[in-house]
What does this fold into?
Amino acid sequence: MIIDIHGHYTTAPTQLRDWRLRQIDSAGTPFNEPLVISDDEIVETIEKGQLRLQRDRGTDVTLFSPTAGGMAHHFGDEQTSVQWTRTVNDLVKRVCDLFPDNFIPVCQIPQSPGVDPANCIDELERCVNGLGFIALNLNPDPTDGYWTGPALTNKAWYPLYEKMVELEVPAMIHVSMSCNPNFHGTGAHYLNGDTVAFMQFIESELFKDFPTLKFVIPHGGGAVPYHWGRYRGIAQDMGRPPIEELLNNVYFDTCVYHQRGIDLLVDVIAADNIVFASEMIGAVRGVDERSGRYFDDTKPYIDGVPGITESDKQKIFESNALKVYPRLKTTLKVTA
Amino acid sequence: MIIDIHGHYTTAPTQLRDWRLRQIDSAGTPFNEPLVISDDEIVETIEKGQLRLQRDRGTDVTLFSPTAGGMAHHFGDEQTSVQWTRTVNDLVKRVCDLFPDNFIPVCQIPQSPGVDPANCIDELERCVNGLGFIALNLNPDPTDGYWTGPALTNKAWYPLYEKMVELEVPAMIHVSMSCNPNFHGTGAHYLNGDTVAFMQFIESELFKDFPTLKFVIPHGGGAVPYHWGRYRGIAQDMGRPPIEELLNNVYFDTCVYHQRGIDLLVDVIAADNIVFASEMIGAVRGVDERSGRYFDDTKPYIDGVPGITESDKQKIFESNALKVYPRLKTTLKVTA
It folds into this structure.
């Protein structure tokens, strides 16, 4: 089985975007409009979009979450974020109920700049216990480009981490859109968020406090595997433990869109810590004119790693996902 | 000849740090203290530091600039930055005059948050025309971690770029310290600054406006070569030209501190666009306990790239530097 742990509902019917724009515009006044989208409309977007690509590419199941760029936690206030989050999580749940063999739900959480992350616990419990979500996306920068909130290792996050551990759900560290004109979203802010998170982990005792907490750093870990020697050296200079110790808690996905990048990822990071992902339909949507293949069709890159063993491929495509996402096994059994 | 295009005077006598602290503390009141450091003191720091490592590692010449983290443009106001910049540039000039065969001066510029970059032209002219500096370091984020200024492609920078073109001096895009607790300096802010710069270039017409403007992106280009497919795809999706066109103006250094990272850099980026650098004595100072070599001893990594040709090594170690830094040739002739 090939499990893609990183997909977003980027193809939702336009009513979602329009509803969100009206919600944002309503700031300061009550907004109680229901989101109206029919099952048929959902089915059409998925069948023409993510499900078609799953079939074309030979993958089986996608861990599916609301659009990361659309989380946009900086808009409005905490209540804006709570309402938006419940709405998109419910929509993702509908997708997964309509296609239970192909999509497993992952939630966003109602972060908001300056608001204590403990505010996210209710929605996380609702999603996991009530709706069968198996993981969450966690935005390390709810300001969406200005980074004025606490680092991921700050104790402000601890109540949320306690709940994650209790519920056995991992988080993908995933920034949202950038409203900073210096940072292109998918081309700079995304990768920087990944890099920042790993360096924060190097500096901290977070995983001593939470030995079973699990994070996935997407986009192949940002700059991290390419600069693995730099990180090893910085950690050594700082008197920190070898960075390999972080690999008890931190995993990297395979959203790296060329062969040489994936080769490096698989060579530098132990196969036990790599989880297959494409982020389709996401950051890069085109077909590479040179290869004739989608840039984000990441399976052939894994298959093409020189000398990769069947055992390592099995870990990357399937068994690591089952290890990182403990609730996945149950969900797959129910739907199988 | 082996030219290291990226070295900083990180070993300056402690009087420099103390002077700077008093200058920062004096904010709002006149500060006219001279910096007192003897030639003997400079000689000692260099002979025990960068010159010793040059000799040990078999490199010949270092392009030498003030400590990047120390630029710290966010402190005080424009005049604070002007005074500090002149002071450290003069100190770097003294190093290079004392060791003219081994160090060639590169300046910092007196950037300051919210201040028009055109304010840097006077100091750039003083350094280049008056003191023989051959390049500059340009901080894409003078706020030192909050990124509230204009992107590098904003026309606010154009007067400075016009002067760079006129003087034939390239800039290394190099952030300074981070005062944002989310961003470790050398482990996150540095690499993010590199990544941000390249993505800004993809989005812009900057090099149509300045066809001969040259930038070096340090630290192996941040996340860029590892994510080359992502950048190719994003550019294609945006209807931008192939990113290889940027390589008429953009070069990457070799400050990547492990073999596999350098292998990827040399494989993905044309040898014509890679310039040798170590950043010693800089971000990573230790000896790798596993290899017994300094992490930042980057020459063996270049020598160790599988299948690298003598011609490519010659470009990376020497001839590209002479191409990117037109004033270097004259300086080397004078000192030879």
Summary: The mean pLDDT of chain B is 97. Chain B touches chain A through 59 residues (CB under 8 Å).
